[in-house]
Design goal:
Low-confidence stretches: 1-18, 57-81
Strand content: 15-25%
Mean pLDDT: 81
Shape: elongated
Order of helices and strands: HEEHHHHEHEEEH
CATH topology: Rossmann fold
Structural class: alpha/beta
Number of domains: 1
CATH class: Alpha Beta
Length: about 230
């Protein structure tokens, strides 16, 4: 029983990779659905932009899962004590930018005409709910699962972005494609310090988030091309 409870806790915390949802690949019979009009697109709500120092990460690791459970309010207060970098420097929503990028590429690739972007926001919608609301068509949803700064050293940071995207055949109330992307570029000694990221109204931070967003969009597009347009 304790082993099962521990597995659930680890899955909920996102620490176990095996708990992640597996990709859904477009089958040959579903490729025609990519041209099924109208084309809708949406992005989910954005999570908090997270960052922690190497010291905080080390403390959390040594504390272990039990410490985290016992002192969760304290841990949350420590995290909330950080500046809201996303709001402070007006960082663009990566989910929105990825949605716009994938929409542009899909529309161009399949010469779609009836485009209805940003019809729905928030979290993943149930395929049956989409069918009741829209009756037919193809629905693209993008979600940013994690974004923030990870320490490269005791004083240097790099940007991490993890996002996911899916395509839903509305009339069939079925996911026909789902995949994820991760952007984490580590330059070691060349990674900036926090004060460098904050300088000039967060200019460098904005650039690094933009680059991570573009890399994630490219990764998702390449994965979609591999299954939707195989050579």
């Amino acid at each position: 029983m304790w082993a099962r409870m521990l597995l659930v806790l680890v899955c909920v915390s996102g620490a176990l990779v095996g708990c992640a949802k597996d990709p859904i690949l477009i089958t040959a019979e579903n490729r025609s659905l990519l041209k099924s009009p109208p084309f809708y697109s949406a992005h989910g709500s954005i999570p908090k932009f997270y960052y922690a120092s190497r010291g905080e990460q080390t403390t959390a690791f040594l504390g272990g899962l039990l410490f985290s459970l016992l002192f969760l309010p304290v841990a949350m207060a420590m995290e909330n004590s950080h500046d809201d970098l996303a709001g402070l420097y007006r960082l663009e929503n990566p989910g929105l930018k990825i949605e716009e990028d994938l929409t542009r590429r899909i529309v161009k690739e399949y010469d779609l005409k009836d485009i209805r972007p940003n019809e729905v926001g928030g979290s993943w919608s149930e395929p049956e709910d989409l069918k009741r609301r829209f009756s037919q068509g193809l629905f693209l949803e993008v979600r940013s699962d994690q974004w923030g700064l990870q320490p490269s050293s005791w004083s240097q940071f790099h940007v991490v972005l993890k996002s996911s995207a899916r395509l839903v055949s509305v009339q069939d109330a079925k996911e026909i494609w789902y995949d994820t992307c991760t952007s984490e570029k580590i330059d070691g000694e060349r990674d900036p310090k926090l004060e460098d990221l904050k300088a000039k109204d967060g200019e460098l931070l904005k650039t690094m988030v933009k680059e991570a967003t573009e890399a994630c969009a490219n990764e998702l597009w390449q994965k979609l091309q591999m299954v939707a347009m195989p050579k």
